[in-house]
Amino acid sequence: MKALSVRQPWASAIIRLGKDVENRLWRTPYRGPLLIHAGKARNNRREENSALQSVAEYAGVDVDWTKFFRELRFGGIIGRARLADCVHIESKRARDKGYSSSPWACGRYLWVLKDLEPLEFVSVAGQLNIFNVPVKELLQGEVRRVEKILSAYAESGSCATATHAEIKDAMLRASRAATEEELERSWEELRGISL
């Protein structure tokens, strides 16, 4: 799957605060699913954190900042979005669609993000530009998450979305998945399991 590495705390702002525009100096023709990778660099943290707080307050986001900063993860996939558009900030389309008026918009090119969702953290090396992350690596993260659900299931005896046997079957299918299509189908199936 395609991924984009974003410095923290901005990566978490996309997934947890609804930052619907990623600012870049370059444009991309790509549209579609995009994993959000939190970069591992930790430089200028105080400055970046302060900038995020200012923009988020302007955007009307109310958040427990101590908790937000404490929960930042680095060096891996933290969520997924859909890259819906990429426009120059001064273009007519950016103005007409309201992209340039987003409180998060400040770069040359606005990467418009929709359908933001958190994912189980998966440690993955980041890269410049859009890069590919094998679905197999994402599946391993979901397997770890579902294993935790199985442990909780054993303690509580209930699960909101599946029976114990259904969870075990889904895990077995995931372990046998070989093709990219099977891996992706298993990943989506495991994503649907929750307590």
Topology at a glance:
Blueprint: E1 2-6, H1 10-17, E2 21-24, E3 32-38, H2 45-59, H3 65-70, E4 76-88, H4 92-96, E5 109-123, E6 130-132, H5 135-156, H6 164-176, H7 180-191
Parallel strand pairs: 1-3
Antiparallel strand pairs: 1-6, 2-5, 3-4, 4-5
Walk me through this protein's architecture.
This protein is of the alpha+beta class and 195 residues long. It contains 7 helices and 6 strands. It has a 6-stranded mixed β-sheet with strand order 2-5-4-3-1-6.
Summarize the model shown.
The chain is an alpha+beta fold and 195 residues long. It has helices at 10-17, 45-59, 65-70, 92-96, 135-156, 164-176, 180-191, and strands spanning 2-6, 21-24, 32-38, 76-88, 109-123, 130-132. 27% of the residues are buried.
Question: How would you state the average pLDDT, rounded?
Answer: 86
Taking the sheet with the most strands, its summary is: 6 strands, mixed
Low-confidence runs (pLDDT<50, min 5 residues)?
A: none
SSE order, one letter for each helix or strand = EHEEHHEHEEHHH
Tell me, what's the shape? globular
Helix content: 40-55%
Continuous helix count:
7
Going by helix content, strand content and strand pairing, the class is alpha+beta
Q: Please indicate the percent range of residues in DSSP E strands (runs of 2 or more).
A: 15-25%
Q: Alpha-carbon distance between the termini?
A: 26 Å
Number of E-state strands: 6
